[in-house]
Amino acid sequence: MSSGKHVVLAFDSIHDVIKAEKIIVRHGIWCDLIPTPRELSSDCGMSIECRTDDLPDLESLRENGALEWRDIHRPE
Amino acid sequence: MVHVGANPGRSGHRLSAQAARIVFDTRQGLAELFGVSDSRQIVFTSNATAGLNIALHGMLGPRDHVVTTSMEHNSVMRPLRHLARERGVRITVVAADREGRVDPAAIREALEPKTRLVAINHGSNVVGCIQPIAQIKEAIGKVPLLVDAAQTAGSYPISIERDGIDLLAFSGHKSLLGPAGTGGLYVRPELDLPPLVRGGTGSRSESDQQPDFRPDKYESGTLNTCGIAGLGAGVRFILERGVETIHNHEMNLLDVFLERLRRIEGVVLYGPSSTEARLPTVSLNVEGKSPSQVGGLLDKRHDIMVRVGLHCAPDAHRTIGTFPDGTVRFSAGALNTTDEMEQAVAAVDEIARS
């Protein structure tokens, strides 16, 4: 997570992280599990890093209820 | 699992993630098996007893009323007697018939305005009878129903959301084919149930307050990840084979067992006489011999291991008329064969003749 090319999705629990990871992978979208960055204060220990380019696809999954996250971090 | 000795949710490294995936997959499998749409409502515990304690301690406040049955295990009765002493909880025990079955109408008649919970043993660990939980829920309406599924999970179809079950505790090491030290509790999402144990969850670490989201709310401290991996393998086996198929197999074994046992002079059988709504659990006695004598002979001479005595359910034995000596209890499972049932019958026959 070094540039504006990536976003980080944050979740309440590790259960929610793994659930989201499975859904994202199933839709052929790249993602990686990373230790939650300090900028996301309220967290579980792990977050999901995705490409900023994939954000529209992720947001449409969220809108149709297939995917949920608690918070999103967009590095400058 | 051999290569994944990490703690799910506590670190950001790949082994921790892999441990979390194992726990997630097991939880999802259980949700599928039990007819639960959101697996977050199923929490892992160390056994069914721990799940029952969360449910009973969380549901029953000062002077609340609870309805239960004479077929309960001590895992329900001992916490209830404790809550009666500590919180003034009032307990009504509805009597089952001699076969161990409870009438849903009798449960309804026992309800009072302050009844906060109905606690029912789904399948008896003494005589194998199944209680009609869907009809019981229909009879009690909005009063929450706690089901003790220690004996039935994995052996008899369970449909939590369809049947309106509010709480369900299960053990992992019985018909779910998991290791000892595994189990869990389903909690209906609308129930505001406080946890029994609070502590580290790997989430909201900046806060010294217990998280209110599930499953973390009820899962403080490191989970039994190795045990949960084993439980996951058991659940996959059951889902692949199908719980109906397993139940039918067990009823075929039971048919053979009961039919041959009935021909042996001096054997007294307890519980339901048919294979309708029951588990492959059979209690018997041999005339002229104590349960412990019979159990000892089965073990030492025939390599057959059974449990004798009161099976942690003294009221159930009072119900079927076998208190205080108890019975010899046989139980079959998904992996038993007809041949093994015949061997068991031959052993009982030899003991009855000796």
**Helix amount of chain A:** 25-40%
Main β-sheet, spatial strand arrangement of chain B: 1-7-6-5-4-2-3
Shape descriptor of chain B reads globular
Average per-residue pLDDT of chain B, rounded, comes to 95
Q: What structural class do helix, strand and pairing data of chain B support?
A: alpha/beta
CATH architecture of chain A: 2-Layer Sandwich
Instruction: Please state the second-level CATH architecture of the largest domain in chain B.
Output: 3-Layer(aba) Sandwich
Q: CA-to-CA gap between the ends of chain B?
A: 49 Å
Determine the number of helices of chain B (DSSP H or I, runs of at least 4 residues): 11
> What is the CATH topology classification name of the largest domain in chain B?
Aspartate Aminotransferase, domain 2
Describe this structure in words.
The complex is a heterodimer of chains A (76) and B (354). Chain A has helices at 14-26, 55-63; strands spanning 6-10, 31-35, 46-51, 71-73. Chain A is built from 2 helices and 4 strands, in the order βαββαβ. Chain A is an alpha+beta fold and 76 residues long. Chain A has a 4-stranded antiparallel sheet with strand order 2-3-1-4, with helices on one face. With 354 residues, chain B is an alpha/beta fold. Chain B folds into 2 domains: 14-241, Type I PLP-dependent aspartate aminotransferase-like (Major domain) (Aspartate Aminotransferase, domain 2, 3-Layer(aba) Sandwich); 243-353, Aspartate Aminotransferase, domain 1 (Alpha-Beta Complex). In chain B, the strands form 2 sheets. A 7-stranded mixed sheet of chain B has the order 1-7-6-5-4-2-3, sandwiched between helices. In chain B, strands 8-9-11-10 form a 4-stranded antiparallel sheet, with helices on one face. The longest helix of chain B is centred in the N-terminal third of the chain and has 21 residues, at 14-34. In chain B, 52% of the residues are buried. The A-B interface holds A 12-19, 22, 33-36, 41-46 and B 8-14, 16-17, 20-21, 23-24, 27, 39-40, 201-207, 211, 213, 215-216.
